[in-house]
Amino acid sequence: MNRLEQKSHALVFEGKRLEPVSSEKNAVGLCSRCESDLTSLAYHRNEAGWLVCAQCKNDHTILMCYDQKWNWRGDRELQISPDEVSVFSIDKEKLASVFTPAEIRDMLSCESGMPYVRQNLYRARTKYDKFEKLFGLKLNL
Ligand SMILES: [Zn+2]
């Protein structure tokens, strides 16, 4: 699923993270689900062309794909998600309420590019949803 981060407007598209080129709000067409006006949230570029994230007033979201010359190439699904956060920036007490000390140590190691124990990171990953539900912070390691 393609994801647009709520605050940073970074787009995770086909596994790649793209920074927004612009966050201009423009009328960009009609919502295919409810026929209300779609407003752009962010514009991104990749090798193929342009990607426009848009939303209607009923919170339907869509990712519109264009080539370099702005020929429409189709629509994709889009999900708006909370911004991913750095483990270093998270309060240690919050981390400790969900993760074990070994998991936290290895999440920090992984984030800083140091050697880590894979098993600990795998175990930590299974708790990301729980952590997001509790604190509204999305981890992605
Ligand atoms: Zn709609």
SSE blueprint and pairings:
Elements: E1 2-5, E2 11-13, E3 16-18, E4 27-30, E5 37-46, E6 49-56, E7 61-67, E8 72-81, H1 92-98, H2 101-111, H3 118-125, H4 128-135
Parallel strand pairs: 1-8
Antiparallel strand pairs: 1-2, 2-3, 4-5, 5-6, 6-7, 7-8
Helix pairs in contact: 2-3
Short description:
This protein is of the alpha+beta class and 141 residues long.
Give a written overview of the molecule.
By secondary structure, this protein is of the alpha+beta class. It contains four helices and eight strands; from the N terminus they run ββββββββαααα. The chain has helices at residues 92-98, 101-111, 118-125, 128-135; strands spanning 2-5, 11-13, 16-18, 27-30, 37-46, 49-56, 61-67, 72-81. Strands 3-2-1-8-7-6-5-4 form an eight-stranded mixed β-sheet, with no helix packed on it. Strand 4 and strand 5 (37-46) form a beta hairpin. Helix 2 crosses helix 3 (118-125). The mean pLDDT is 94. Bound molecules: zinc ion (ZN).
**Low-confidence segments, ≥5 residues, pLDDT <50?**
none
Treating each run of at least 4 consecutive H or I residues as one helix, how many helices?
4
Largest sheet: 8 strands, mixed
Q: How would you state the average pLDDT, rounded?
A: 94
Share of β-strand residues: 25-35%
List keywords for this structure.
141 residues, alpha+beta, 8-stranded mixed beta sheet, 8 strands, 35% strand, binds zinc ion
